[in-house]
Amino acid sequence: MGSAAIVDRLLHSDEPAIRWKVRVRVLGESPDSRAIRSLQNEIRDSPRVRRLLSGRDARGRITRPSGEVYAKWFGAHWVMAALADTGYPRGDRSLLPVRDQLMERWLADRYFREHDAKSRAQAYRREGVPVMQGRHRRCASQQSNALFSVLTLGLADERAQDLVERLLHWQWPDGGWNCDKNPEAAKSSFMESLIPLRALSLVARESGDRAAREAARRAAQIFLERRLFLRKADGSVMKPGFVELHYPLYWHYDILGGLVVMAEAGFIDDPRCGEALDLLEAKRLPDGGWPAEKRFFKLSSKLATGTELYDWGGASKRRTNEWVTADALAVLQVAGRLDTGLE
Q1: Residue 236 contacts residue 227 (beta carbons within 8 Å)
Q2: N or C: which end of the chain has fewer CB within 10 A?
């Protein structure tokens, strides 16, 4: 199926971030070009970004409404993740107070303390990271999302290496991560392993860090061995939500999110990505786009857990979602499966 029409449609989107995703990730324009830098300034000044950053106090920190960094989905943690994924310009020093919020939260003393636990009750009894059956039970998606955000936004300082060290320290023998407090849990979690893979592969690309590269390679095998969505034992779908498309994913997982990270990390050419790519192509709508089949957020005038600050195109199996479509096109482009028909 040719993609010229949908690409042209996205190039005329009202959302500058959509145009950035298509121009840089689909059409291959240099992110350092004058035209793209101008587009990123438009992203910075867009209504979406102004809304995302509207909760800053006099110090520049995001304190809406309680100051909780991880408040879903409007805390500083999620705002920075959204900026990192939507082409916000690098090196904006006005975001340094928000960066510091993330670093203070995810490098607090309790993440450097650990204790042995033999039951779920024991795991929650003491502050720190519980170790059960020799495995650290830690939600590594949190530290790694912060790491990915500050690196992508060009705001990393020496503390970024402390986040890398924590991720390497917590990595499980099978190559992933998991925060399951069930002592019998012996396999890594897709949700807790995808973002560490994304962050560590970025570290490796930017710095040449061999330990990060090897950790990312090991983490990728968690997904590749299961063809990104299928059980090893019988080839059945691991979870129904894995084969539904969403945007944003936050800490969740679906095949598109898995393919995005495989493309970024350099594993998209692995034959074990083939079935997920086939499924993604099969979900294409007649107009050439892709839908957001479900969503993980709710919209409300009152901020509460799970509330978004701005709509991300809604969810409908029959209607193209620009955010999902831009990411799907980028994945297929890297995989060599896209014909844009554009010169």
Answers
A1: no
A2: C
Scan for tokens 């692995």, then name that residue. 270
Q: How many whole angstroms separate alpha carbon 330 and alpha carbon 304?
A: 33
Q: How many CB atoms lie within 10 A of CB 30?
A: 11
Distance CA 23, CA 21 (A): 6
Q: What is the DSSP string of 163-188?
A: HHHHHHHH--TTS--B----TT--S-
- Between CA 153 and CA 84 the distance in angstroms is 6
57-111 pLDDT, tens digit each:
999 999 988 889 999 999 999 999 999 999 999 999 999 999 999 999 999 999 9
* 121 vs 71: CA distance, rounded Å: 25
Half-sphere exposure of 230 (CA within 13 A, CB side): 14
Q: Is 266 exposed, middle or buried (0-12, 13-18, 19+ CB in 10 A)?
A: middle
